[in-house]
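Posting for a labmate who doesn't have an account.
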Amino acid sequence: MPRLLIVHHTASPTLQAMFEAVHSGATTDEIEGVEVVVRPALGATAVDVLEADAYLLGTPVNIGYMSGALKHFFDQIYYPCLEATVRRPYALYVHGNSDATGAVKAVESIVAGLQWRQARPPVVVIGVPAKDDMEACWELGATVAAELVM
């Protein structure tokens, strides 16, 4: 069964809501045959990454960059997963109070080194999420999960 790994740093109520929407989309009853595994960024391991077929990454914007927790995740898994995970799909959701460009660029730089394939454009939410933002998070989870069984 294909496995989707959600790695997240959920440091605020807004990120919790976004995570729940992503998770709900990924686990919708309409998509069968995908195992969804959730790991906080500080607890996710190279084994988790190696055992997964796709990745959903969630982070706040901290001082214009991804969270330290997500950076720690990448530091831990980069070399052990470098060759074994090439071309695996990933997607990203980000929340910030202002510009998120630096955080998105930082994640995209690291996954480019891993040679992961962007499954969907990032969902970036600035400030208080609107209904459309939450629907975009749900859709992100659902489309990445659905891609694994197509």
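Reply:
Got it, the structure tokens are right above this. The chain has five helices and seven strands.
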